[in-house]
Amino acid sequence: MIDGLAVNGLSKHFGGLQVARNLTLSLPGGARTALIGPNGAGKTTFANLLTGVLKPTSGTILLNGKSIGGLSEAERVRAGIAKTFQITNLFRDLTVRENIRLPILEREHRTKKVFCRSDGTPEIEFEIVQLLRDLELTPLADKPVRGLAYGQQRLVELALTLASRPKILILDEPAAGVPSTESHLIVEAIKRLPADLSVLIIEHDMQLVFEVANRIIVLVNGAILMEGTPEEVVANSQVRELYLGGGHD
Questions:
Q1: CA-to-CA distance for 21 and 244, rounded, in angstroms?
Q2: Which of 193, 243, 191, 239 is nearest to 82 (CA)?
Q3: What does the alpha-carbon distance between residue 186 and residue 200 come to, in Å, rounded to a whole number?
Q4: Does the structural domain 1-80+168-249 have CATH classification 2.40.50.180?
Q5: Which of 2, 59, 121, 197 could make an S-S bridge to 9, C-beta 3.0–4.6 Å?
């Protein structure tokens, strides 16, 4: 069985407009891969194809050797594909702990016990404590989300995503909107992710990309221009001209 995600010949057309062109790539277990490219390159389209928001015109997506093409968005989450978003989507009046509890209860089909404490479900409370510790959110556990700095809110969102126990984690511009003084929180959190988790980072912050990714895929006009190590990408003259040199996404 193939470990991780395998995409073969993935294409997407909207009428005569082709937004994804024969995309073929793999995310093996433990991968730390970044997807970069200029505005309109098709990065968001690709992520939406992986998560089931969009259906491909052609091609296959395999998770651990099994096709997930027929699965809905919710079914793909349950199968192990999870995605964060460019804008935080949290319950701002709840505490950090209460926010993290929600997806765990949903995963365990215990949504009627949203505000239950450890005397009711000790295994769930233990998992919350672990996530808080892993993302260094313990001091903020009982603070309402609305009072947190934006970088801290992004960490809470990451905790919620990890609570679904994904096999493939898609980080959609994890540093978007985060002040430069807080961006190190995102970098450090990504570095601490479980070693066996496959991570795809969609990001325009090249400093973050070079700090956390060991493979980079460059997407241009819906097609893969190249894939390689950070060193190989930097050395490619087309990439420097089309993306790195322009500095825009």
A1: 22
A2: 193
A3: 14
A4: no
A5: 59
